[in-house]
Recover the amino acids of this structure.
């Protein structure tokens, strides 16, 4: 009888832990925090790889930096980063002409589907979440 009770307790604990893990994964999937990889392809031009790094401060606000490895530019700070209703909007005032990214987070949290704008132009850019940090 005691072994049956201990087995039931063990099963209940395992179930609780697995549900907690699922809840944590779901929370991460609904957040843009992480490293994102993609490329901007200007009309008639070659693809320019981009890496977007999104972090969350203790107060819950977001911050972002951008890398353009092929251009030797790393850690370009975002003037603002906002995530509302599944949409990430990031502005980069330090980029000539003003630039920004606006994308919608996919249901599974693996992709941002959106566009890159710079000056008067805009091009579609999809970013893929990276499991390991991109350096």
């Amino acid at each position: 009888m005691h072994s049956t009770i201990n087995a039931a307790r063990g099963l209940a604990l395992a179930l609780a832990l697995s549900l907690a893990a699922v809840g944590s994964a779901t929370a991460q999937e609904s957040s843009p925090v992480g490293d994102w990889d993609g490329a901007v392809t200007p009309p008639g031009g070659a693809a320019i790889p981009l890496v977007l790094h999104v972090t969350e401060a203790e107060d819950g606000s977001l911050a972002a930096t951008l890398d353009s490895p092929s251009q030797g530019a790393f850690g370009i700070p975002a003037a603002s980063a906002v995530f509302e209703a599944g949409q990430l909007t990031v502005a980069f005032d330090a980029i000539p002409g003003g630039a920004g990214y606006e994308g919608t987070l996919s249901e599974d949290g693996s992709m941002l589907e959106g566009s890159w704008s710079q000056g008067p132009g805009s091009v579609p850019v999809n970013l893929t979440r990276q499991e390991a940090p991109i350096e």
Q: What stands out?
A: The chain is about 20% helix and 45% strand. Strands lie at 34-40, 48-56, 62-68, 73-77, 80-84, 87-92, 99-105, 111-118, 121-130.
